[in-house]
Design goal:
The protein is an alpha/beta fold and 239 residues long. The protein has one domain: Metallo-beta-lactamase, Chain A (4-Layer Sandwich), CATH 3.60.15. The strands form 3 sheets. It has a 7-stranded mixed β-sheet. The chain is globular. The protein starts with 5 loop residues before the first strand and ends with a helix.
């Protein structure tokens, strides 16, 4: 995908993905169009703001910003400034951690997603995978053919190749972070604090959802009819 721009996802006209670099590694922002002037943004990157379509910058544009865990907040302030008509969301655990580390003050209203959710389009649902120390949130879009799209946070990485940057490339090799769909050592030992709970939940969720599209927070989007089995094999071999 082209970096620092917003691109549509095949077969999902309301869904856009924007890629940016933080630092040296590809990261993804997701935009879901609710209506002509209302959008849900997941982990919005600051550099993607200047590429936001002009027709979606009306004064009354409403933005719902989801921070999918307590580490995915760096670009939020830029979008808050650009769109005063916004609401911030995070999981209960992520909200507590964001306030504790002073990323946001207690006076800044962050809506706990377990209590209130943005106006998700038809077919969309929030998922709260257990076992994540930073309070991860996923989104799922179920389609009429009994398949789904998974928009995940830090659980999976999907880099097509090893980085050209020597330091990043070395880290990817050491940590098992690339190439291809991975649960890296960082995910396994730092991001997950209950690997068995996540493994049990995710394998059950795979059977229910049959995902054929995966949009991770880091790496490339993938669309594959065999994706459920691919993810299952990664989970079973890594955890």
């Amino acid at each position: 995908m082209k970096k620092n721009t917003w691109l549509p996802v095949a077969s999902h006209p309301e869904l856009l993905v924007g890629q940016y670099i933080v630092p040296n590694f590809v990261s993804n922002s997701v935009a879901i169009q609710v209506n002509d002037n209302e959008f849900i943004l997941v982990s919005p990157g600051a550099s993607l703001l200047e590429h936001w379509p002009e027709e979606w910058r009306k004064p009354d544009t409403k933005i719902h910003i989801i921070m999918p865990n307590a580490w995915h907040f760096m670009g939020v302030s830029a979008w808050q400034a650009a769109f005063p008509n916004h609401t911030l969301y995070a999981s209960e655990l992520a909200k507590a951690k964001l306030i504790a580390k002073k990323a946001f003050s207690e006076n800044q209203d962050i809506v706990a997603l377990q209590q209130k959710q943005p106006p998700l389009p038809e077919g969309y649902q929030l998922l709260f995978p257990p076992g994540h120390r930073a309070g991860d949130v996923w989104l799922k879009k179920q389609t009429s053919d009994d398949t789904s799209t998974w928009i995940t946070c830090d659980s999976f990485l999907n880099y097509e190749r090893l980085s050209n940057q020597p330091v990043a490339r070395t880290l990817q090799k050491i940590l098992g972070a690339a190439p291809g769909l991975k649960i890296s050592q960082v995910v396994k030992w730092l991001i997950l604090n209950n690997k068995q709970a996540f493994k049990t939940w995710s394998l059950n969720q795979l059977e229910q959802d049959n995902p054929t599209t995966l949009i991770p927070s880091h790496g490339e989007l993938t669309q594959d009819e065999q994706l459920k089995d691919i993810i299952k094999n990664v989970i079973k071999s890594s955890l």
